[in-house]
Write a structure and sequence with these properties.
8% of the residues lie in helices and 58% in strands. By secondary structure, it is mostly beta strands. The chain has 2 domains: 131 residues, Immunoglobulin-like (Sandwich); 126 residues, Immunoglobulin-like, CATH 2.60.40.10. Strands 3, 4, 5, 7 and 8 form a 5-stranded antiparallel sheet that branches. Strand 3 and strand 4 form a beta hairpin.
Length: 288
């Protein structure tokens, strides 16, 4: 008798658990068509307009959303977010669109989602990238997956987002009792709005070998000579007419004589990751 009761209880538990699993699985979304319009401009920003035709089943009044994440196919990794604008709570680039589902089933003939190119946060600029969209329907409050819709591969070419429009030097300038050079840069930056970043000027010999720096203020972690200017661009496109940095002559660890040198200009994110190489500027340095 006891064995019979145990079997009945076990059977009921299996049936009940199967019912629960079935009820969770019952909510789903089915994609019918996906298409993308590239080079669309919205509110002054260029990007892609993603169109989805799909059906949601047994999801009436469910708080749900479409989530699109972007993966770099060269390394099979999701693109990391850099400015907390289009992103997941785990720190990856993503775009979302909340769903208002009033019927069962619910039909979306053309759900449109706009993704600005600059929010892909690709690095370094410029470059050609093979990207894959990972498109899901999720619960909006938890991010838990309801249905994976599809992957969509595309190639994206990122043009130059920053330009050193002009570089010039004032020689034999004195600041703080030290003689040196005042380096000027006219810089145009796009895609770093409200993002902490910096301009790095690396000093090299004409063959690309680094010049050694004297003090920590004008050194990289490896001891190479460099100057740094902190930036936080205000706008979608920011123009700095005259960024300048004073470099004392004494910072160059070089022997007496004439030296053919060059400055290597790069733009970096705050964490030192390269945003874009800008330009080189050749100059001659003399020491008696």
């Amino acid at each position: 008798m006891k064995e019979t009761i145990k079997e009945v209880v076990l059977f009921c538990a299996i049936v009940f658990s199967g019912f629960l699993v079935g009820s969770v699985q019952a909510q789903e979304a089915r994609l019918e068509k996906l298409w993308v319009d590239f080079d669309v401009t919205r509110e002054g920003r260029k990007g892609m307009l993603i169109h989805l035709k799909f059906t949601v089943i047994r999801m009436k009044n469910v708080d749900a959303a479409v989530r699109i994440m972007f993966k770099d196919k060269s390394n099979d990794k999701f693109l990391p977010d850099r400015n907390k604008a289009f992103y997941t709570t785990t720190g990856y680039v993503a775009v979302f669109r909340n769903l208002q589902i009033d019927y069962d089933p619910g039909y979306y003939e053309d759900l449109q989602i706009f993704m600005p190119y600059e929010e892909l946060d690709l690095s370094p600029f410029p470059g050609r990238y093979n990207i894959s969209m990972d498109i899901d329907v999720i619960y909006a409050d938890t991010g838990e997956l309801i249905s994976h819709l599809t992957f969509y591969d595309f190639e994206y070419f990122e043009p130059e987002m920053a330009t050193a429009e002009r570089v010039w030097i004032d020689y034999n300038v004195t600041q703080g009792g030290k003689k040196g050079m005042l380096i000027h840069v006219k810089l145009r930056v796009q895609g770093l709005k409200q993002t902490n970043s910096y301009l790095a000027i690396y000093f090299e010999k004409s063959n690309g070998d680094p010049v050694k720096g004297k003090s920590l203020k004008f050194q990289t972690k490896s001891g190479a000579m460099a100057g740094f200017i902190d930036l936080r661009p205000c706008c979608d496109v920011t123009v700095y007419d005259d960024l300048s940095i004073f470099v004392p002559y004494e910072e160059f660890v070089l022997p007496a004589g004439k030296h053919a040198l060059r400055m290597h200009f790069d733009l970096h994110y705050e964490n030192a990751e390269l945003f874009q190489h800008l330009t080189y500027y050749d100059f001659e340095f003399s020491r008696r």
